[in-house]
Fold:
Amino acid sequence: MKALTRPTRLAPGARVAVVAPSGPVPEERLAAGLDILRGWDLDPVVAPHVLDRHPEFTYLAGTDADRAADLQTAWCDPDVAAVLCARGGYGAQRMVDLLDWDAIRAAGPKVFLGFSDITALHEAFANRAGLVTLHGPMVAAVDFIKNTRAQEHLRATLFEPETVRVIESGGGAPPLVPGHATGVVLGGCLSLLAADLGTPHARTSARGGLLCLEDVGEETYRLDRALTQLLRAGWLDGVTGVLLGSWARCSPYEQVRTLLTDRLARLGVPVVEEFGFGHGEGALTIPFGVRAELDADAGTLTLEQPALV
Structure:
């Protein structure tokens, strides 16, 4: 697996677009997130349909066409340096096929940020545009607007990426499987990766990758089903290492941990848990598409190059 093209870091005064590819966005939380971005001397612009709600499916932030148009327009605007997702939820899979990937590639690399449901877009930007993206806290998410650690790690990644080339889990948990591994970082929300299998925008394999996995609100049997699907499909064949993030509002963690060990230890690669990304307070920003080294024993991920140029 090859490393992908890195976007340019942000500078003070940069214009950043906020979009909502998935679920509806609470206005007061959006306002709080925008205030944080302005405090970083960024110039955030809110896409036209961010506060919309689908007329029939109220779990969506507006229609599929409008959500896709917002992202497309923001990406192709030469004055926009970054496209930041407001929140996850559900809906990215419904709109990703409406994007013009020829135009996105022609517009050149820029920063893209999100996680959870945005996993489908991380896969698409990697597979269709060959771009590094950032798996990190979103503008209108509670775990961003109320958590200094999440804010500081994202800010450093955006403005001074060389200062966060070593990402430390901080959890102190021993590895599920010890060892060292190198590869290209990829992954996201487990259930979304499983749902994305076989689609035009997803990787056909995670071979050669350091795979990041996390999820939210899933019972153990559903996590089992998603992991087993990835295993049966051969998608995990050749993975060099696994980093496990948060499992917020899932079954009791000891039960989840037993499942993760059962399904992943058979890969014969290092597996580290509690790595500090995903749904949870103080979530770290993890760049996807960069080559890195995982030290499962020390709980560190060392990037060969900074996430952004």
Observations:
- The chain has a mean pLDDT of 96.
- The longest strand covers residues 180-189.
